[in-house]
Amino acid sequence: MDTYLNIAEAVLRGVRRPLTAKEILDTAYASDLVPSQLHGRTQHKTMGARLSEDILLLRERSAFFRTEPGRFFLREYLTDASIPEKHRIPMIARRRARELHRGRALALSRHALSKLNGSALARDEVMSLLQSGGLHYTPDVHHRGLDDIVLWSFVVVTRDECVLTYRHGRYREGRDAFLRRRSIGFFTPVVDQDWNLFDKEDHGVISSGLKAIMVDLDVPAEAVFGRDKEDLARLNRFLLYNENGQPKDLLAVIRFECPRWFDPAKRRLAINDLSWMSLRSQINHLEDFDPWSQSVLQIVQTDAVAI
Fold first, then answer.
1. Are 166 and 271 in contact (CB under 8 A)?
2. Whether the Cβ atoms of residue 240 and residue 247 lie closer than 8 Å to each other
3. Whole-angstrom Cα distance, residue 73 to residue 172?
4. What is the pLDDT of residues 41-71, one digit of tens each?
């Protein structure tokens, strides 16, 4: 734990009530808990950022939680009956729109993809193209050349014969063709920051998608990026999505097997209408799904193949 978190833990344990980041620092200075090497005019902002980051990354394993926007308390007091109940109820945050465009977007050219046949592309075909240098990065998904096909991680969360679905709201999507439609995928563009020493083989395609569902569904990091990652997340195929008759986006369709102990459909999240849908059942209203989900479902149904 870093210095700011150590200070926050000491202060909150002493006062036994929720405080803002500024109140934590003011109390720490009054109690002479701030070491001399910490200085600056916006320390309260750093304190707030460190607490927020710790809660985001560690979730239930964080020592802290929010009781309301901007007010922090210690998780150890959640079951302490001597603390007023109103201070022992974690805030279920309504998330702001997930930051999808956080870097330069990985793209392939229409010309390069034209060498492959069809819309449903085998994993090895596209991976071979990526590894042979047939890629580049655009400034972001909104600033792309006419020949650019942006690569997206499209994660389908499954359990046995079921797939997790949700309905698009402003949090997830603002495009008219997607808004209020149902989806079977949690998606995000693959960006330059996703490619690291551990993901050179697929250029960060799988890790990018896993980070998206970790944020969207509050899945603990160890369940997503643990030692069994290869068994839980599999990239089997790519889908070239056409808009107005022209290829525009390339979806890396990733299947993530949801851990048995974790059921996102029973949690209070900012995503709308989470529910499990059986893939064995006939889908009577395909038009209720967003365009990307329709394309993935049609391939699954037509080819009788698993996601």
1. yes
2. yes
3. 29
4. 788 888 988 898 888 778 778 999 998 888 9
